Amino acid sequence: MEEQVSNKQVLAAGLIAGNPKQTDMYLQTSTITLQLPPEASNAVLVKNLYLSCDPYMRGTKTTFGTRLFYSFSPHSPIIGYGVCEVLDSKHPNFKKGDLVWGVTQWEEYSIITTMTDSLFEIEHTDVSLSYYTGLLGMPGMTAYAGFYEVGVPKKGDYVFISSAFGAVGQLVGQLAKLMGCYVVGSAGSKDKVEILKNKFGFDGAFNYKEEKDLNATLKRYFPKGIDIYFDNVGGDMFEAALLNMRRRGRIAVAGMISQYDLDEPQGIKNLVNIIYKQIKIEAFTVYDYYHLYPKFLDTVLPYIREGKITYVEDIAEGLENGPAALEAMFTGRSAGKQVVLVARA
Amino acid sequence: MEEQVSNKQVLAAGLIAGNPKQTDMYLQTSTITLQLPPEASNAVLVKNLYLSCDPYMRGTKTTFGTRLFYSFSPHSPIIGYGVCEVLDSKHPNFKKGDLVWGVTQWEEYSIITTMTDSLFEIEHTDVSLSYYTGLLGMPGMTAYAGFYEVGVPKKGDYVFISSAFGAVGQLVGQLAKLMGCYVVGSAGSKDKVEILKNKFGFDGAFNYKEEKDLNATLKRYFPKGIDIYFDNVGGDMFEAALLNMRRRGRIAVAGMISQYDLDEPQGIKNLVNIIYKQIKIEAFTVYDYYHLYPKFLDTVLPYIREGKITYVEDIAEGLENGPAALEAMFTGRSAGKQVVLVARA
Q1: Which CATH number fits domain A138-287: 3.40.50.300, 1.10.10.10, 3.40.50.720, 3.40.630.30?
Q2: How far is CA A76 from the centre of its chain?
Q3: Does B265 contact A272 at a Cβ distance shorter than 8 Å?
Q4: What is the pLDDT of residues B268-289, one digit of tens each?
């Protein structure tokens, strides 16, 4: 019999109320054999290096309560995106030693069986590996697809981004600036607002918590109106944006996080404005755009190497700090894209 | 001095409350010289043959009240689409004897000066000239642009059309059937519902006034959901449609007539559903698509000649019956696309 090693894991305790808290998760150490059994066809055994904390992980409300990630079952490891090293493979596309990113589990070692389609081989290692949880991973691809494919930007467009300091928003803003757009973002703290302006070169940024009248705020930042609104929050910000869109403006909806916890969703009163200005509102998911991933890398990698695109990460060290990191991301306390470092490559 | 002839006119009395009524208009007879003065460069003098009654003519609420058509000024002839014969022209694109359709005024003879850009020459006269107020005019082009360009249909799509018996809806439904879609429409009377099913070949149709729970109604007609919703009404129907859209469904918004008279617009509570299904909502205006008019004619004219597309009109005879016809269109009493016959060609 093969030698077994210990495998630290973060498990989901049960259904959650609202955003996940540390107490919705618990640590456990099990054991694992670092070799796939012969019958594990198409499976991949990986060592998890970085795990990603993302807003979608809170899932949506069901009749029974809110789940932590959509494929969650209680007392099993949390599922999420990560960067991994392949230790063993029975899958034709992967071999020992490969670095991959995709859907894995919150533990030191994982056997990936059903989600191997979602694994991308990492070919470029001259940039930080952790970027494949964010800038070069699912959030980055979300930014790229939402901005270019849904937003259909052109030079000089007026672009507004909510949650602009988030894992997605950071890149949307920088792509928009590189295209020659005027870019304003909202975030939830003074520090984040400063980084948006000083590090990412946004033309403007504001702390939405300090604004009493979001319509007036947007009018101040966009006296000529908004061409593209990249929406991550919905609700009051969406209402204000609807009042400030320009003719044939586009609203790319990546999420409406303000709405998920409400017992009854907020009625959107300004929707009729889309008629007067011929507005497009399009909700999208990155899953429909992964075929563009090679094109995305061709676009973004050179910018990273030239220092024209940068990224702010908040890396928690150690899987045992994962639950706190996930809670921090949901409460807006993370000082950048929240990552958990499990092991160095 | 040239001989003058009498020119019967329909004038707007003032601002209106809600939908226009006969009493918001009045008749007057003035005189006109049937020759353009030498200084009228780029002007066209026309004899109006058919005038069109269209929903957009009620305009939108202003601080002062609702206007009858956007460029209305009190005690001037109502502005609207029509089919006309050119009697005199100082415009390089038009000559005496031409038949045109476009924006004219509600009177027997009009001098068109500023809106000549909106005039289209009628080249095909083997079909009913009145069709250029509807099927082959602005409403037809609205149907074509909304269905093909905004709706992006494919064979087998499930298509729902509100105001399906209207000047636009009639064509949307027939284009969708010709493409191999499953088509259901809503209308406001039993007679209209019968025509949708029996004359236009809709797979289903219902009288929305008899439905208590529109969500249940749509679930009944679309057990697998809706791919394209062609929206003319907004409000409760829009809410119900949002609950029944399929993944990546498209809502083409031509109008939201249920919303224009409300003091405060109805809050749309189901908007968050666009996230779960990646829905696109796009409001559009025909003015952005007139460059496709030749392509539109190439598509629709053969279908008309082959009897594969038909059209139901309600033609009021005589300009003096125009105000009653316009009121009938707004109250849903018209038995087809409402047209006013002013003079035969």
Answers
A1: 3.40.50.720
A2: 22
A3: yes
A4: 999 999 999 999 999 999 999 9
d(CA B15, CA B72): 9
User: What are the chain A neighbours of B250 within 8 Å (beta carbons)?
Assistant: none
pLDDT at B175: 98
Under CATH, to which class is A4-134+312-341 assigned? Answer: alpha beta
Q: Please report residues of B whose CB lies closer than 8 A to that of A255.
A: 275
Residue B287: CB atoms within 10 A of its CB come to 12
> Of A275, A278, A285, A286, which to mutate for an interface test with B (greatest number of B Cβ within 10 Å)?
A275
Look up residue B190 and give its DSSP letter: H
pLDDT at A66: 62
Round to whole Å and give the CA distance between B13 and B174: 38
Residue with tokens 């990155």: A286
- Does residue B338 surpass a pLDDT of 60? yes
Which of B209, B122, B123, B129 shows the shortest CA–CA distance to B165?
Answer: B209
How many CB atoms are located within 10 Å of the residue A316 CB? 22
pLDDT of A62: 59
Contact by Cβ (8 Å): A67, A116: no
Chain B closest CA to A280's CA: distance in Å? 4
Provide the token pair at A163.
């949650």
Start and end residues for every CATH 3.40.50.720 domain found in chain B = 138-287
CA distances in angstroms from B285 to A123, A277, A289, A335, listed in the order given = 46, 9, 29, 44
Partners of residue B284 in chain A, C-beta under 8 Å: 278
Distance of CA A214 to the CA centre of its chain: 25
Using a CB-CB cut-off of 8 Å, the residues of chain A touching B285 are: 278
d(CA A174, CA A223): 22
From B274, which residue of chain A is nearest by alpha-carbon distance? A283
* Residue A261 with chain B: CB contacts under 8 Å: none
Question: Which of B269, B281, B286, B289 to mutate against chain A (most A CBs within 10 Å)?
Answer: B281
| Contact call for B278 and A288, based on CB within 8 A | yes
Region B154-166: mean pLDDT is: 97
Q: Are B47 and B84 in contact (CB under 8 A)?
A: yes
What was the ipTM of the complex prediction? Answer: 0.88
